[in-house]
Specification:
Strand content: 25-35%
Number of strands: 6
Number of helices: 3
Radius of gyration: 14 Å
CATH topology: Nuclear Transport Factor 2, Chain: A
CATH class: Alpha Beta
Distance between the termini: 38 Å
Order of helices and strands: HHEEHEEEE
Number of domains: 1
CATH architecture: Roll
Helix content: 10-25%
Largest sheet: 6 strands, mixed
Shape: globular
Strand order of the largest sheet: 2-1-6-5-4-3
Length: 142
């Protein structure tokens, strides 16, 4: 049901860097800001598609709670592609291309484009210290 937040939902195991985008999407689609925020370190950094920058898990949770209730309440997020670059045995960078459909129009943004989300990850904790979510505008992807 649009606008409702699902609690006690079933989630995939968060047991590898590759699983992070899947759990992020499950939490998003379940409108579960608590689960979404639990993926992040306490002092995580998150820059959203509009450039807003949150500096800890609780501010990420509050922003996502508001967004999932008011802006993204009819949205569906899906993982298109995930790439993981392991920097060492316990550190990885996770790049996930996600597709968001059904966002409520806000300001000049009538419909969002495909999102690229860059996540860095320290495997020992399996929590995210940083996330960057720029809009994809076409052209070269590198």
């Amino acid at each position: 049901m649009p606008g409702s937040m699902v609690r006690n939902a079933e989630y995939s195991p968060l047991d590898s860097p590759e699983s992070i985008p899947t759990v992020f999407v499950e939490a998003w689609n379940n409108r579960d800001p608590d689960k979404l925020a639990s993926i992040f370190d306490a002092d995580a950094e998150f820059v959203n598609v509009t450039g807003l920058w949150w500096h800890d898990r609780e501010s990420i949770r509050k922003a996502r709670a508001y967004g999932l209730e008011h802006i993204f309440d009819r949205s569906t997020l899906r993982v298109v592609t995930t790439r993981v670059k392991r920097l060492s045995d316990d550190i990885a960078v996770v790049h996930a291309r996600m597709s968001l459909m059904g966002q409520t129009p806000v300001g000049e943004v009538a419909s969002p484009r495909t999102r690229h989300t860059l996540l860095s990850h320290h495997q020992a904790r399996l929590l995210l210290p940083v996330a960057l979510n720029p809009t994809h505008s076409g052209g070269h992807h590198g």
